[in-house]
Specification:
Keywords: Disulfide bond, Electron transport, Redox-active center, Transport. The chain has 200 residues and is an alpha+beta fold. It is 36% helix and 22% strand. The longest helix has 15 residues, at 26-40. The radius of gyration is 23 Å and the shape is elongated.
Amino acid sequence: MTDPIKITLYRWAGSWGPFSVKIPCGECTLTTDILSDTFENELFGVPIKLEVKDWLSHWWEPLKVGAWHAPIVMVEGKVISQGEALNRGMLVQAVIQEWTKRDTLKGNIVYGKETCPYCIKAKKMLDEAGVEYQYYDVVKDSAALYRMIPEVKAIIGEKTPVTVPQIWMDGQYIGGADNLDTWLNKKGLNKVPDNVVNLG
């Protein structure tokens, strides 16, 4: 089991010495709602531990890393948002980057997009070969996009552009559709065209 990603929210609340917060923070409430909804949707299945702290009672903790204006959201000790309602895209990206460091891709996975002819070709080859796989549309699923990019960059290099499809078979990186065709041929899983007659 992968250790959960630690997310800390410092909300505008609490007390310190003679000071106390009595005015509710609308952006803090909105940030809490965004966190909950993102955990249930884009980050569903990612192990997360959320800690909510009152900013005024713990003001020195985020200040150590340069954050002072609640709401403050930190992922594994790094500030991703402060002073405004949380941008859920920033949250998803930060969490997936941390998760990628802890979790390896398993099974057969195809990352692609609906309008990509090579993605369609790869899915067709796998379907015809009878290979089960998980398909993630990186345009429609931001968590999939943020998961795919660091996985691929670690293999192809930071400066090389990432295209789709990106394919893993049996947890091993394959590459694109042409590489998949080669992999299927090596495994003897390629489909014989309908116009080929077996004379043997």
